[in-house]
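We were asked to recover a plausible sequence for a given structure. The inputs and outputs are reproduced exactly as logged, with field labels preserved.

PROBLEM: sequence recovery
POSITIONS: 417
GIVEN STRUCTURE:
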């Protein structure tokens, strides 16, 4: 369905362009994402023009539990009766409760944490700790990665679209193709403080490394006294059908893990940098080297703790795998029906992407899906791919609606070939 904005929406868009940039509005309109959300609940929100939108992205994990999950809203309301941000010059029982809960889920002895507000900050801290702990400077990341927008996090990025205007970036950062253990071995040196990887990279069309990849990375890090940082900002908290995606890789224990997005339960900013007890010893020497006035807020801790109580149950994780399977069944049919347009799909739990034959197919699918009332997002480091990562609470009927919308969008791709 062609989307025609009302007069009110046109006015908002022109004011938005003035305040936040015309290019942003142009791009979003092109993708069919010039949406001003009003009501929001579960997997649905409403545009200001009244159009309903089914969420097939969950803001890459922020809305893992959908919008305004009733248990989360209740936890937040209860917290607001007596809490606020908290005072980060003092202690916080809420932070302690969240750290205890996270430590129960993380592999090995990753038992210590620092809380902040965004994934980028949490990545920055991971890199700071790695450098401080090791006394080295080198950080190796994947060519295809995205770890955020702040100083250290941005320096891991090799995509000029993100980095070019801001150079020179931090020294000491280098990149290797994801999954290539020989390239990693060649890049390692006596000055490598840490290797930072996501367990799988959806941003690049869902690159899933072989089962033994992370054991090899772990061995290589151990041989070189290098720390292994695993970024679970997108993949963690159930997305892949296990609580942490690194659990898919033969019991590998990183030195540092990062979580954000889903920790917010879509309600209150929260991010965590989690480290082994050994790495945490770094803070004995530098206890006040890193601080955040508003990060790790008491209210955010209450919300994140409530989220973990919902997701970290075997039956809930099982439901994620079952829904992932239903999506995959739909994709198999789409592959049969659209062989010249749809090349393949990638899937692990509810972490899924569709890969198109057209190198810019992600842009077109974005638009066509929006016309069908479904919000998904192309993969920014692989524009032939579109990410489908719906909220965990999605119903079977809503999954089928996403598959129907994909089918309609693929038909449009064919017509306009
Ligand atoms: C893998 C990964 N790490 C870190 C970040 C940064 O998180 P934030 O946007 O909360 O700063 C992102 C954001 O998309 C991400 O995808």
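RECOVERED SEQUENCE:
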């Amino acid at each position: 369905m062609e989307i025609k904005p009302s007069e009110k929406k046109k006015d908002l868009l022109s004011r938005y362009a003035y305040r936040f940039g015309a290019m942003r509005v142009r791009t979003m309109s092109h993708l069919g994402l010039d949406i001003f959300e009003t009501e929001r609940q579960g997997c649905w929100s409403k545009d200001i023009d009244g159009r309903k939108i089914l969420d097939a992205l969950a803001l890459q994990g922020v809305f893992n539990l959908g919008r305004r999950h009733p248990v989360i809203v209740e936890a937040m309301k209860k917290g607001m009766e007596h809490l606020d941000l908290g005072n980060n010059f003092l202690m916080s029982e809420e932070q302690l409760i969240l750290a205890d809960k996270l430590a129960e889920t993380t592999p090995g002895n990753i038992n210590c944490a620092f809380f902040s507000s965004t994934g980028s900050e949490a990545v920055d801290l991971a890199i700071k700790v790695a450098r401080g702990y090791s006394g080295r400077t080198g950080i190796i990341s994947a060519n295809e990665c995205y770890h955020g927008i702040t100083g250290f996090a941005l320096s891991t990025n090799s995509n000029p679209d993100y980095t070019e205007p801001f150079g020179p970036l931090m020294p000491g950062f280098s990149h290797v193709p994801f999954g290539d253990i020989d390239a990693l071995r060649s890049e390692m040196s006596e000055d490598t403080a840490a290797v930072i990887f996501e367990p799988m990279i959806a941003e690049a069309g869902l690159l899933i490394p072989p089962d033994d990849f992370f054991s090899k990375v772990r061995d290589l890090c151990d041989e070189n006294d290098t720390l292994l940082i695993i970024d679970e900002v997108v993949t963690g908290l159930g997305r892949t059908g296990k609580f942490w995606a690194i659990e898919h890789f033969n019991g590998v224990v990183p030195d540092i893990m990062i979580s954000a997005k889903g920790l917010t339960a879509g309600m209150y900013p929260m991010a965590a940098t989690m480290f082994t007890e050994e790495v945490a010893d770094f803070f004995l020497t530098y206890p006040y080297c890193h601080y955040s006035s508003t990060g790790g807020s008491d209210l955010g801790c209450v919300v994140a703790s409530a989220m973990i109580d919902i997701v970290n149950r075997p039956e809930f994780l099982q439901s994620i795998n079952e829904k992932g399977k239903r999506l995959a069944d739909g994709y198999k049919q789409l592959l049969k029906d659209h062989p010249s347009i749809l090349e393949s799909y990638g899937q692990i739990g509810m972490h899924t992407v569709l890969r198109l034959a057209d190198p810019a197919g992600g842009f077109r699918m974005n638009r066509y899906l929006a016309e069908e009332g479904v919000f998904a997002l192309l993969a920014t480091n692989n524009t032939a791919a579109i990410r489908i990562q719906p909220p965990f609470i999605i119903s079977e009927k809503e999954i089928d609606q996403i598959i129907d919308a994909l089918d309609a969008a693929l038909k449009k791709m064919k017509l306009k070939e």
